[in-house]
Prior knowledge:
Helix content is 29%, strand content 13%. By secondary structure, the chain is of the alpha+beta class. The protein is elongated.
Amino acid sequence: xxxxxxxxxxxxxxxxxxxxxxxxxxxxxxxxxxxxxxxxxxxxxxxxxxxxxxxxxxxxxxxxxxxxxxxxxxxxxxxxxxxxxxxxxxxxxxxxxxxxxxxxxxxxxxxxxxxxxxxxxxxxxxxxxxxxxxxxxxxxxxxxxxxxxxxxxxxxxxxxx
Length: 161
């Protein structure tokens, strides 16, 4: 099998004869082409087409929205918003919990920690607390058991972009 298998007699390219040139597709001939010089220093003025105008408007809108977003501090938070730490917890809707249920579990296991926000997902939740309370919350929750399920808690990782 494999490489040593006999595939029959090989024909040389000359025996097959020259290939016939394929007729150009009429749809492709209707597409305008633009020649671009090899240097990047020259600007090429493209003829305006409706698709290009719409695309350039969208790009300019996105650029203006990005410019309008406030700068973020070293901690990634907006300057006017109080700093928050995020904790990942392996409790979610699949465990029969909603926001109130997660708050109840956390209040029972980590007394004295104030939750600033709770974001419940299907299999996990994110807890927002003051930045200095993150380690205390992780220590209070990680390794504990709710029912038969061990709880995993860790400092939330940065979002992928």
